Amino acid sequence: MSPATGAVTDALRELHSRYAGVGEGELADYIPELALADPGAFGLALISMDGHRYSTGDAGAPFTIQSVSKPFVYALALSLLGLDEVSRWVNAEPSGEAFNAISLERSTGRPANAMVNAGAIVTTALIPDTPVAPRFGRILDCLSRFAGRRLDVDEEVYASEAATGDRNRALAYLIRSTGPLPVDPVAAVETYFRQCSVRVTALDLAAMAATLAHGGVNPLTGDRVVAEPVAAQVLAVMATCGMYDASGDWLLRVGLPAKSGVSGGLIAAGPARFGLAAYSPLLDRTGTSVRGHLAIGMLSERLGLHLM
Ligand code: DON
Hints:
Substrate binds at residues 67, 117, 161, 168, 192, 244, 262. By secondary structure, the chain is α+β, with helices and mostly antiparallel strands.
């Protein structure tokens, strides 16, 4: 992080008080449990490459990771299988569509990318499942290593998502009908629901983003979670696809690889510089935290974080 540490703390505090009163956006309610979130919750966290933690507001408040899990499970799949094999199953092209769109490539049936639900379900399904190392156990271990502490599942959110997840089940069946789903659709989607229901805080998400920014080494624990090329591959897909049909506008204006989630989590990474996260559950039409978007956008402008 190049700006002075005092400047980072001041900027986070100032942005928090500037945007805390913004009341626009809606709570996600298609997963009923998510509609119980506190609409006023708002936290910001930044972790630098030397492991310095900066935070303000509700940065320690728990919420479920939702789609912010997708880049990290993609990282796990890339680590275990390599880019060529993973790319046989899921492409890396921006879809220009909503997160829950069908988004399957016409010629191969592959999902457009691993950030939309269709691609994330396939990515989850690619993680090997053995009696000694079950698929979800591997995913939870990996997410925990990215965060630098042991994470767990919010069982209420999982049950709520499983009870209402027919669109994702439909996507999984549709993908299998065109070919590229390596396991049973029900098994794939149930694991995907559990992955989305892993409980985190904004500080956890900042550590996860910082690990990608730091070439795959967690700056808090020193743990090498993934190899450097894998971290670079994941950041590239976040930059082009992480914000769904708002990815181009986000990269243009904010200039950072990022990923949003419908519980209100949002991460952005400055390669070799920092990991940044926001939590605020009021969402815009693309499923992005309104306050998170405003705060990260302004922080990028203030501190000159745009990649270009
Ligand atoms: O599959 C779903 O619909 C949710 N578990 C996750 C979607 C999500 O977070 C989209 N991102 N903004």
